[in-house]
Amino acid sequence: MKRVFLIVLDSFGVGEMPDAADFGDTGSNTLKAVSGSKAFHVPNLAELGLFHLDGVDVKEQRAEKVLGAYARMAEASKGKDTTIGHWEIAGVISKNPMPTFPNGFPDALLQEFSKRTGRGIICNRPYSGTEVIKDYGEEHMRTGDLIVYTSADSVFQIAAHEKVVPIQELYRYCEIARSLCQNDWGVGRIIARPFEGEAPDFKRTSRRHDYSLTPPEATMLDEIKEKNLDVLAVGKINDIFAGQGITDMVRTANNAEGIERTLEYMKKDFEGLCFTNLVDFDMVYGHRNDVEGYAAALTYFDTKLPDIMAGLREEDILLITADHGCDPSTESTDHSREYIPCLIYGAPVKQGINLGTRSTFADIAATVLDYLDIKGNIAGTSFWSEIAK
User: How many whole angstroms separate alpha carbon 173 and alpha carbon 221?
Assistant: First the structure.
């Protein structure tokens, strides 16, 4: 009974890609930025090869012995956002970037959205998620108008106080937005951003919900499900893939819960894939330029890594990766165009194998399917034969 545990450390990039300048990300290096913090201590990730990756120059933290295989992965898709990154990990390369709206959304879209929801719109421009409720929260409370905003990413975000807009109503508004945001307006994600409290101390709640576009092609999730194997989704994985190819799922409020839900799945009998996203690195620390918080979050994950590794059965493999960068040390608060790590561990995996720099995240999908003995029609080249014992 083969099981694959694929964990995405959301936004944990390991250095700028050659085309980083095209995305305004020259010099971005999430790993290097956080590795200088006193809060950063990741000996278990080091033993899985993190500091042996191509281009990583944090050599003083290298482990003497690497317990698995490792690779640096380049993004072949034209983008640096969550949706495109996860789709590529799952075997779909996006040739065109998803639309962004640096000047706000067009009037025609917002007029139709307002008509269907019966509410007015305020803000309509790129904004920090924490700052937008500080600046527009009181007006929203007074008028009932929805706070609609975006970022440098392909997102349409709707913030509303839970006492003004009940959570299920906010979700319904997001479904309306998802139905409108197609084709030229087809942003990658509609995001519900509920908040609570009193001014000026508004706080976002954990009931965020993402509504993604459906992947344009079959992913490794579809291929696994089609073979009557399990695809278990932890965190926002179900949202990112719009539920497509998922057989069971659980949402999580933070990294700690995501790790615990993954450990719970490890104790269950299933065959196939458990796909986890740990979002705090990106949402709580990367976008807020919190180097110390990001470093501490990685250290926390590293302290839980021995439990994850110990939970693996004889035929299980573990892959730890990311979906893009989000360097918290730069002026930008947005994602960064970076390589990502891929650390592979388990009883079936050879130790100390450097797979070099791979040309696409999709090699992960091809390898997962290869290990599960599935011949799927997806992008990517499997590296399983290079690391199998």
Answer: 28
